Amino acid sequence: MDLRQMRYFLTVVEEAHFGRAAQRLNIVQPALSMQIKALEEEVGGVLFLRTTRKVELTEAGKLFRAEAELAVAQAERAKSVVQRALRGETGKVRIGFAGNAVFTGKLLADMRAFNAAYPQVEIELQELAPQWQSEAILAGKIDVGYCPQMGIEFDSQLSSELIGDWPMIIALAKDHPLAGAELLTREMIANEPLIVYSTGKADGGQLAQLERALGSPPRIAHQVSSTLSVLMLAAAGQGIALVPSTFEQVPLPGLLYKPLENFSLRANMILLHRTQESTGSVKAWLALTRSNK
Description:
It contains 11 helices and 12 strands. It has 293 residues and is α/β, with parallel strands linked by helices. Strands 3, 4, 5, 6, 7, 10, 11 and 12 form an 8-stranded mixed sheet that branches. The chain has a two-stranded antiparallel sheet with strand order 1-2. It has a two-stranded parallel sheet with strand order 8-9.
């Protein structure tokens, strides 16, 4: 027997009439009678008592009705579960992020919007440096990554999409000699010791970008793998830091933010993910993130 026969059987039960059941099922009555007869032959007994006026269940038919209803309901549930997963309404999205994804507010905005649209999808977060995000996605440990581009070259199996772009500003200690200036220029910061976010094996690309923007080789005082460490070192007077303009909303004792004039280098944020993505919840996240720019 199959689910179609069970549905035919239950329709006859509900209508108590083969003609009305056939009409409801949009099939001819002889075809319906043939399917019910085949079902009775398979179970080895009569399921209906047929008269010229109505159709009634036998005792065996009553037992079969209960089991058929369970089977059809379970099949519908299984279909619904899979369809919801394919639409991205259930499941999990595993996200890797660099610190600036938090401080720029982009990741938080996406999480709030996604949770409102897909409340039953679990979001799992893991802080990872940019180069580790790409490796984790390829290894199947996370699904998407939020990180700055920083001249990093990614594997061809991955796609990167620009989802944020901001001017750079300077973070420095309140007692720094440049703290009194209203506006800083690249000439004013060219020889200042810099605190930079380390990207690991992509550091060379980042330093080359800095040299082009400054017009001279940068003086690197510290390279650290945490965005918060960059700000703390700047507040402690260990150098100055180039950070996205959105960091102005991050207060830290002893730290000032200063605008930077005519500086070519900008901060950006990319969304990193598998080029061929099949998981419904992840596809839903990507679609929402694109629309939430």
